[in-house]
Design brief:
The chain has one domain. Helices cover about 20% and strands about 30% of the residues. This is Secreted protein.
Length: about 120
């Protein structure tokens, strides 16, 4: 039993995710690359959901999707929207998608640091 839990935690670490039974888990609502440049809302939802659904924290590397149809001179943003339960909704943006190399961190772990 303990070996199975350790294996699960190790596998989660390999994929940039962590598992925590005390926090809600991420449910991706939408992922959009380049909406600020005219791209269709939700064009990256599937990829983001495959990477981040059902974990409490996820590190998502932001890259331009192969199907991106943004204006070539426009520096595209990446916007992620997710929920952690029925009443907790979050949104985060990587401005100009960090030139294809930014990492967006999504979490459902409650913050307990200063100011909370």
């Amino acid at each position: 039993m303990i070996r199975a839990i350790c294996t699960l935690l190790s596998l989660a670490g390999l994929f940039g995710a962590s598992v925590n039974t005390f926090a809600g888990t991420i449910r991706i609502e939408s992922g959009t690359y380049g909406a600020n440049c005219g791209a269709h809302h939700g064009n990256s939802t599937r990829a983001l959901a495959l990477h981040c659904n059902d974990v409490d924290t996820c590190r998502y590397p932001v890259f331009s999707p192969a199907t991106s149809r943004t204006r070539s001179a426009c520096k595209a943003d990446f916007v992620a929207e997710w929920s952690c339960g029925p009443r907790e909704f979050h949104q985060a943006t990587v401005s100009s998608a960090a030139n294809n190399g930014g990492v967006l961190v999504l979490t459902c772990v409650p913050s307990t640091g200063a100011g909370k």
